[in-house]
Design goal:
Number of helices: 2
Helix content: 55-70%
Largest sheet: 2 strands, antiparallel
Strand content: 5-15%
Radius of gyration: 23 Å
Shape: elongated
Strand order of the largest sheet: 1-2
Order of helices and strands: EEHH
């Protein structure tokens, strides 16, 4: 069952409906967004709330995409290392690792 949770972003309160299981994630996400928006406000001087929100959203999206690319690169490297190891094992022990 959904229930409203109060979150504070740039000194404004927002009531967001979520399940009890989603509550910790929502609170953490709101705190993260609040921090990013405060960072943008501190950098930009007299920016409006809409502009601060867009800049913070773009920064968060950039972080996410960078992490996804980095994760894919690590997975690709691991797969390549495993293929290499399997090839070496196949050469050392022919016919035993089918």
């Amino acid at each position: 069952m959904s229930e409203p949770v109060a979150v504070h972003i740039l000194d404004r309160e927002f009531l967001i409906a979520c399940t009890p299981e989603e509550r910790p994630g929502l609170i953490a996400a709101a705190a993260y967004l609040d921090g990013k928006m405060r960072e943008m406000r501190g950098r930009g001087g007299a920016l409006g709330m809409d502009r601060i929100a867009v800049l913070a959203g773009l920064n968060i999206a950039h972080e996410l995409l960078s992490q996804q690319r980095s994760s894919t690169t690590r997975e690709d490297q691991l797969a390549q290392d495993l293929r290499s190891l399997k090839s070496r094992l196949d050469a050392a022990f022919p016919g035993s690792l089918q």
